[in-house]
Amino acid sequence: MTKLLLYGLLACLVASVSGTDWNRDVRSMLVHYERFEVRPETETFLEVSDEQNASWEELIEQCTPIDTREPLSESCMLLAEQYFSKEPVWPYSQMYYYDAWDGWVPIFIRELTYKNFTTADYVDKDVPYWNDVFDGQIEQRKKQFLKVVADSSCLDLASRNKLGIHPTNHKSCAARELYKYGAYLNACSRAHQRLSFLSQEITQENQTGELNYYELSFSKLDEWVSDVPLRYSAKRRLAKGFLHASWVAEQCKVHGFVLVPGQSHLGLETTEEKMSWEHDLEKYFLFVNHAYDLALRIAAKTGDDWAIRSRTMGRYLTDEFNEDLLKRYPLQFHREMGKGAGYDFTPQEKARHRAKAYLLLVEQAGEKVAQLEYDPSKLKREIRYVKNGGSLRFPPSRAEILKETRKWLQEYEEDEMLKEMKGELF
C-alpha cells in the first residue's frame, strides 16, 4: 500500500509539473520502480559442474571491472576460453543492457536469425556447445562450406521445390559442419555488433566527459536501482555478455569468413577469398546472411538435428517437410504452430497446438517443466479438446499455397489492368 501511495503522489507531481527536467526524471523513476527487473537467464536444465561454476567465479573475480576501452588481457582471454567453451550455444542468442528510460532491454542488432530458446528446447539434452563451434576446425570448415555450395546436389536441397527431409544426404553434404559454420557466422556477427553498440560514446547532461553504453549502464544501475541483489545480478549479466562477445570476437578475428561465391549486390561481388570481420561486416551483411541461411537450410533439409532445432519454421516450408518434422519433432512442430508460424491460424487454432505441445512436454519432461513453458490454466478448454481427440488445423499444402499465390497474382493483374483502362478513358 505504501508503494501505491508513493506512485500516486509521484504521478500527481508529474501531472502538475510539465516541460522540466525534473518532470522527466520523476516519470523515469516511475518506470524504474514499477517495471525494472533483470530478465532471468534461460533455464537449460543441463547439469552444470562444480568446475564450471568455479571457472565463472574466477573469470568474474579476475577480469572485472572491465575496461571497455582496452582489449581483454591475455590471461582474461584464457579464463574466458576456459569458461565459455564449455557453455551451451543457445542461451547466448540475446544480450541485455540497462537503458536509463526502459530498464533491462535487449540490444537490438541486425540479426542473421533469431529464435527465442526456452525450456522446451532443452528437453533433448543433445545441444551444441561453444567448443563444438570453436574447435580448431574453422579453416577446414570454411573449405567444406565452399565445396558444398558448389555441389548442385547439395545446393538443390535448399530449394523450396526440394520436398521433405533427406537424411541420405547428411554425410555427403557435410550437414553437421554446415550447421557449425552457420553458428560461427551468427556468433561472430552478433559479437561484433554487440561490442560496437556497447562501445558507442554518448554525452550526458551535466556531466563532463563521455560514457559508452556499457559504462552508462553501470552508472544508471547505481543511480536508479536501490535493490542491491537486483543491481548486482544486472551488473554480472552485463559483464558476462561483454566478456562473451569479446572472447567470440577474438576467435573470429583470427579466421575471418568466406561467402557463397558469385553473389552480387549494390556493386559488390563475392569471391572465395577470406574476408575480415573487422572491416567488411556492415558492407557484406546481406551476403553473410545469405551464407548463414543457406548453410542452415541445407543442414536442416538433410535432417541435421541441431540445424532443425535452431531454426524457426516459416510459412513457405513445404507440406512434405512439415510432415517429416511432425513425425520426427512433434514437440517442436506444435510449439511453432502454437505461435502461428506465419500461417493465418485463428487464436483458438494456435491455442490448440499449444495445448498439444503442453501435453507432449508433460509426457517427456513432467508437469513442472511443462508449466515453465505454458500456463495450463489458460488452456483448459484446449487441453480438454486435444485429450478428447479433437482435430488440429495444419499448414496448407504446397499445392494450396501455389493456388493461393496464383489467385493473388491474377487479382493483382486484373486490378492493374482496370487502372490502365481508367487512365486511358480519363
Please state the oligomeric state of the protein chains shown: single chain
Q: What is the total tally of β strands?
A: 6
The H-and-E topology, N to C, reads as: HHHHEEHHHHEEHHEEHHHHHHHHH
Q: What is the CA-atom radius of gyration, in angstroms?
A: 25 Å
Strand order of the largest sheet: 1-2
The profile of the biggest β sheet is: 2 strands, antiparallel
Structural class: mainly alpha
Q: Helix share of residues?
A: 55-70%
Count of individual helical segments:
19
Mean of pLDDT: 86
Low-confidence stretches: 1-34
Strand content: under 5%
C-alpha end-to-end distance? 70 Å
What sort of overall outline do the alpha carbons produce when their principal axes are compared? globular
Explain the overall architecture.
The protein has 426 residues and is mostly helical. Helices cover 58% and strands 4% of the residues. It has 19 helices and six strands. A two-stranded antiparallel sheet has the order 1-2. Strands 3-4 form a two-stranded antiparallel ribbon. Helix 15 (330-339) packs antiparallel against helix 16 (347-365). The longest helix is centred in the middle third of the chain and has 28 residues, at 228-255. It is globular. The protein starts with a helix and ends with a helix. Residues 1-34 have low confidence and may be disordered.
Short description:
The protein is mainly alpha-helical and 426 residues long. The protein is 58% helix and 4% strand. The protein has helices spanning 2-16, 21-35, 50-63, 74-84, 130-133, 138-149, 152-155, 175-198, 213-224, 228-255, 277-280, 285-301, 305-310, 319-328, 330-339, 347-365, 367-373, 380-387, 398-425; strands spanning 96-99, 103-106, 201-203, 210-212, 264-265, 268-269.
